[in-house]
Specification:
Radius of gyration: 17 Å
Shape: globular
Order of helices and strands: EEEEEEEEEEEEEE
Structural class: mainly beta
Number of helices: 0
Strand order of the largest sheet: 3-4-5-6
Length: 190
């Protein structure tokens, strides 16, 4: 099986753990990790197939390289597969986003994880859906506890192209700009 490993790197670029250390090594395969750091710890997120479907798990790592959640924190356990998690930090909590196919098409879900490893929304909150697959989410920090979440999806046009969308969420996972915004509007390309 595939496992998740990590290594700490000092501010001057020195690798502090040249051999790395395991973050997760469950009976299933773990893949596609993401990481965010804040408040003296990091949160690593990954896809994990230890259950019937691919789910999202996380683990906290402190500054000494100690994995605080060696069995992992299950962030999703719904039907369908969850994929490509990414993590960010909003100044208080970690914010995790992923693509989720529990309702058919891939939609974008989020949850927050506090410094003690508690997920605020155990199965996640859907923040973007549509009649197309939405995939490859990423999350970045923003002002006043806000996070910018971006993702892409196919649009029905002559070329079946993809576009990027984005939205802001608040500390409580509420949508601040509920309609989101779209990049790459090709309607003016004539």
């Amino acid at each position: 099986s595939w496992d998740i490993h990590a290594a700490r790197i000092s501010p001057d670029g020195t690798v502090l753990d040249p051999e790395g250390f395991p973050v997760s090594f469950s009976s299933g395969a773990e893949s596609n990790p993401g990481i965010a750091c804040g408040s003296g710890q990091c949160l690593v997120v990954w896809e994990d197939d230890r259950n019937a479907d691919v789910d999202i798990y996380a683990a906290r790592i402190d500054t000494t390289g100690t994995v605080l959640d060696p069995a992992g924190i299950p962030l999703t356990s719904g039907g369908g597969d969850e994929a490509r998690p990414q993590a960010g930090f909003n100044g208080t909590d970690f914010v995790v986003v992923w693509g989720d196919s529990r309702n058919g098409n891939s939609e974008i879900f989020t949850t927050r994880v506090d410094a003690d490893g508690n997920a605020s929304d155990p199965c996640g909150v859907m923040i973007a859906a549509g009649d197309r697959n939405l995939e490859y989410p990423s999350v970045g920090g923003g002002p006043a506890g806000r996070n910018l979440i971006v993702y892409n999806g196919f649009v029905e046009d002559t070329y079946r192209s993809t576009r990027a969308w984005g939205l802001f969420v608040g500390e409580d996972a509420s949508l601040i700009f509920a309609d989101g915004f779209e990049s790459g509007d090709t309607s003016t390309w004539n």
